[in-house]
Amino acid sequence: MSLIIALKGFECLLLSSDTRMTEGYTLEGPKTRDDSQKFLSLGEHLAVLTYGLTEVGYTGITSLKDEVSKNAVQKITFPSVIEIGERTFKRVSSEWSSANQEIPRRDRDVGFVIAGYDMEKDWLRIFNFQSPDFLPKEAGSGVLLAGQWHVAKFFIRKLYKGDMSLEKLKHLSVFLLDSTMTVYKTVGGNIKLAAVTKPCGFKWVTEEEVASIRLKNTAFSSFFQERFYSSLMSALNSAKE
Questions:
Q1: Top-level CATH class of 3-205?
Q2: Where are the domains of the chain?
C-alpha cells in the first residue's frame, strides 16, 4: 500500500507520496522495496499519483504520461487529461487482469490521483480514480488522502487549515507521511513532494529540502506524540475511576 496526499492551501497545492512497494508477506511481516515510482509530472501544471496494486499503478501513470505527451502539440486542458486518465486507467487495469487471471481482484485495489491547476477555471483541483470503474471524483474539501490514510486523517483534523501557506503544507505533508511510517510497515522510503501554483506551475521539492523539513519536524513530532500520549493516558485513567 501507499500514502498519497494532496492538500490545497492559500493559492497553492502540495502533493506528496512515499516510495515503498510491497512485494509479498512473510511470517516476519511485509517484504518491501523503497524504489517504487508513484508520482509523475504531466506537464507545466499537472501531476498524477498512484496507490494500491504496484504493477497496475506504475503502468497507469506512465501510460497516461505517454498519452499526454503524444497530444502535447494540441492544447491539453485539465478536463481532457481527466478524460484521457479515466480511459487509460480502465484499459491498463483490464489488460493486467486479463494477463493475470489467476490473481483475484477486489474493488478499490488500485487508485490514481490527478491534480493541478485548471487554467480554464482558474482553480486548483484534485481528482481521485478507483478501480474497477475509475470514475473521476473531485475532492471538494481541499484534502485528499489515499492508501493508508488512517493515521494521516487523524492528524489532518487537528492540524490542517485551508489557508495554509506552501511552506506549512510542506511541513504538514512530511509530518503526515513520517507519522504513518511509524505505524504501517507498508508505507516508507523516501518522501516525494511537489508544489503547484499558478505563477510557477509544477515544481518538485528537492531531496535536500525534504531532508531539512524532516529534521525540523523532529522536535514537533516528539512534542505532539508526548501530548497525545498524555491525553490518551489521562482519558484512560479517568475511565477507570
A1: alpha beta
A2: 3-205
